[in-house]
Specification:
The chain is α/β, with parallel strands linked by helices. It contains eleven helices and twelve strands. The chain has a single domain, classed as TIM Barrel (Alpha-Beta Barrel), CATH 3.20.20.
């Protein structure tokens, strides 16, 4: 699998980043098989969070044997210093590691939300100083996320960002403007950019759900490949987090393994093909 530098971290990150929420939905044997499949494909980066149910607990026994082969991204959604600091220690215990590579503010979507996270920012900075992480970043998933993350990048000495890109979002002129401005800012400051929701299609309707993702995902290898290719074709993007669904996971891996950049015309065709779909945002209650 191809790799790209994760900005100033210097890590040559695989195009596919293993979305750690997958481990919440898998038993021990299935989790081990998924990890082996990812490593065999060339994945060298795992992104996980304490908010992903049992994911940390389930990944923990598997991680020590491969810790020297993977870059581990972790997160905290807690706003104050004391609780986020305690959560970091719990995360390290669950993952059976002395440190993570990247520690991120999780799910920051608005400026008001960013303002409320000063205590957690203090935790990130202290963790970096103490060697409990090497790099710090921010994640978010909503329509206001790119503009909010741009402000966070200007406000704090961050190393990475993580936000959604899938073709339908580029049909929204406000989101596309803000996202492209964030991508340009990250290139200017040499920040790594990780993408989520590349395989999204639309919000779930009231029918039966056939996947464990909170949005209805793309159906079939061709549509998953289209989303992955589209996201990876945006300037400055480092990699795409694989979806947290056992059926979609191998499709996203294969799309990253076979990645060929989209031409400008192909990108616009992908946007037009999804322009009539409803956005998956705002987040469902």
């Amino acid at each position: 699998m191809q790799t790209r530098l994760l900005g100033r971290t210097g890590h040559a990150s695989s195009l596919a980043i293993l979305g750690g929420i997958l481990f919440h939905f898998l038993d021990e044997d299935a989790g081990a098989a998924a990890l082996d499949r990812a490593l065999a494909a060339g994945v060298n980066h795992i992104d996980i969070a304490p908010g992903y149910g049992n994911a940390e607990v389930n990944l923990g026994p598997l991680l020590p044997a491969v810790r020297d082969r993977v870059f581990v991204s972790e997160k905290t959604a807690l706003p104050d210093r004391d609780s986020s600091w305690a959560q970091l220690n719990e995360t390290l215990t669950r993952l059976r590691t002395d440190a993570v590579d990247l520690y991120q503010l999780h799910g920051v979507t608005t400026l008001a939300d960013l303002d409320s996270r000063e205590g957690a920012v203090a935790t990130l900075l202290e963790a970096r100083e103490q060697g409990l992480c090497r790099w710090i970043g921010i994640t978010g998933h909503n329509l206001e996320t790119p503009a909010t993350q741009a402000e966070a990048v200007r406000r704090y000495d961050l190393d990475t960002v993580m936000f959604p890109i899938y073709p339908r979002l580029w049909a929204d002129p406000d989101y596309r403007r803000d996202a492209e401005a964030l991508l340009a800012l990250c290139q200017e400051r040499d920040l790594g950019v990780m993408v989520i929701k590349a395989a999204a299609a639309r919000p779930w309707d009231t029918g039966d759900r056939h996947a464990t993702t909170w949005y209805e995902p793309a159906s079939g290898a061709d549509q998953v490949t289209r989303g992955v290719r589209f996201a990876l074709s945006q300037p400055g993007v480092t990699g795409v987090c694989t979806p947290g669904d056992a059926t979609l996971f191998p499709l996203a891996l294969e799309a990253a393994e076979c990645f060929v950049p989209m031409s400008g015309d192909e990108q616009e065709d992908a946007v037009l093909a999804m322009a009539g779909e409803s956005l998956i945002f705002p987040l469902p209650a």
